Queue: 4 jobs
Job 1
Amino acid sequence: MEDMKAYVEAGKPTLKIDTLQGDTLELTLTCEFDKYGIPEDAVELVYFNDLLAMVEAFRILWIT
């Protein structure tokens, strides 16, 4: 999170983060953003409604 904060403070492009909406992963992210002072608009949350779809997108991203 400290690296992410430094990235945001350096004015680099908005990060996209995949998560499940309403899941503990999203809640953990938003709590950590608040804890480290990372503004909500500093990242773009990309929501999946299905865990398998999120895993498949991750797999495709890292294989190609």
Job 2
Amino acid sequence: MTPDLLAQILPLQETTPALLISTVIAAYLIGCIPFAVVVSRAFGLADPRSFGSGNPGATNVLRTGNKLAAFLTLFGDAAKGAIAIGVAAAMGLPADLLGWIGLIAFFGHVFPVTLGFKGGKGVSTSAGVLLALYWPLGLATLGTWLFMAFTLRYSSLSAITAALLAPVYAVFMGLPTPVIVPITLMASILLIKHAGNLRRLLAGQETKIGSKKKG
């Protein structure tokens, strides 16, 4: 759903500083919910920051062998991005700012105050943001990730490829600038967070999906 379409169906309020600040804070705090840690504790698993890549995300939770825990982490992290945008829309924020709210939620996941600003890499949360902003864009980006993941079985390479193509998809789909710019910034942060993975990929040292972390 694009900002233009949202503007036609949502009751908009005047964008006061108080509304904008409260919405930004809400989006950030939603993004800060550490589902990988919460789900792991609920399932009696080790803290995902203590093994494998040390990343509090679904891929690392999957290294425990508990697929349900990994799925719930994936779902929760994706839901954060979508919920943040939904909350912003419900609070009456103008539709052309919703992409930026999604970016704030993504930022909360990557740099959460709840984990000392050391969060996940943002793949799932960015997917939730894209699906909430414009579902065809979200599906195209998710499809890219799935294709790469099932063919090459490298989660990091799948994320890097999807991040590179998301802004390209947005441009070709004719989305407005208020959507394209925050998507591009989100993709850029995601790529920076995967810099170490890229180095390991080039060195042939990256682990595949479902494999244990190499020593």
Job 3
Amino acid sequence: MELRRIGIFNNKGGVAKTTSVINLAYSLQKNDKKVLVVDCDTQENCFSFFMSGKAASSILPTEYENISHTTWGRYCTITEDDISGYDYILFDLPPTMSDEVKTIIKHCSVVYVPTILGEFEIAGLKKVTDEIHRQGVKLGGVFVTMFQPKNDSEIIEEFRRVLQNRLLNTVIPYSKTVRESQKAGLPIEEYFKEKGVPKNKNSWKIVYAYEDLAQEVMRGE
């Protein structure tokens, strides 16, 4: 398959961009896809999460055989040969619309936009999707994160009405274990396995949701 460069971007913070990159990468590698994660944020939260040793080269291994990682600065020094073995490159973009971010978006094959549900989010999403189109890049879709049925069931219907087929089917539920898993340095599924959380518990809904997101991304090839 042809290498796909996928940006995960929203110019609003707190919408689970990094959480989505980590767990999407994990779900893709479960499908035998080789993934390179590129942390484009100066805070380097994603890079720190996957760090398993000293940064001796531009592309670093992780604890997962099919996932490697790097930063945008390091990525800019690598060659096409360096990335020829990958199926996907995931770019974890910072919540800003800087010239550098626009450059990274333009470098992508497709961009997916995570969003929380709120009264002011739809207007903000228009600015984001307009900028993606302005850079000549395909919008893969918008997906909802941190969904809570009691609070969000009504407003998600409004999002579906406005966004139509731009809103992906996958909805990522809210989970209080996200922070715990990140503190442990583990994708959510690995954290649940380590803690022995039964698969019939509601906790696993977020794992299955990221698996569904991976399937939607792969179908978009």
Job 4
Amino acid sequence: MITKLNTLLIGAVGPLGAKAVPSGIDKRPVAGPVRLGRDGFEGDAQGDRKNHGGPLKAVHHYAYDHYDAWRQEIADAPVLRRPGAFGENLSTVGLDETQVALGDVFRLGDAVIEVSQGRQPCWRLNLRFGVADMAMRVQKTGRIGWYYRVIEAGIVRPHDCLDLIERRSPDWTLYRLWRLLYVDTLNRDELHAVIALPHLPERWRLLAERRLATQAVEDWTPRLSEKPAT
């Protein structure tokens, strides 16, 4: 599986929405090589380091394949005119959540990266698109995007390729994980299976264990529709 980058993007922190919430979601294409380190691309930033960025979310990937569907659903969203609408660092065609699995390892330029988790959409997407329920729409469709952790740092160029070099849990596609998180949320067999994955992020392991223990699903409201403080 070799997929050429459509666009490589980075962004600084800037004001988002009417209340100028600090955010790094506005990524812009780069024209030359960029160093990729443990915490992400040089020059890339996040406004909320508690919930965005860091080693397990060093690189964000979103399939440009999804843009046509979004343009049909949200025809008047200017951010959909080019890659970067979802704050992604990597934009590609021909690779989506049904093909990519948790633990997949890719060579990207001189770097090596591993799929660490799917994206959990948050209310910043509502501000980004000017659509009050955009985060919920992303969650419901499964067109969520995903994150990588960096195994080996290196230089990445705008037209490098993602070259799949290892699959650690090929059965656990991001689509399957999405179904467990947001559709078939209390499937005990699936929850036990996902907990057994050695490379599952600890935060997600605790979430699955909590669902098994309580037979209840966590409240998504703060993540999807929390209003920024005035």
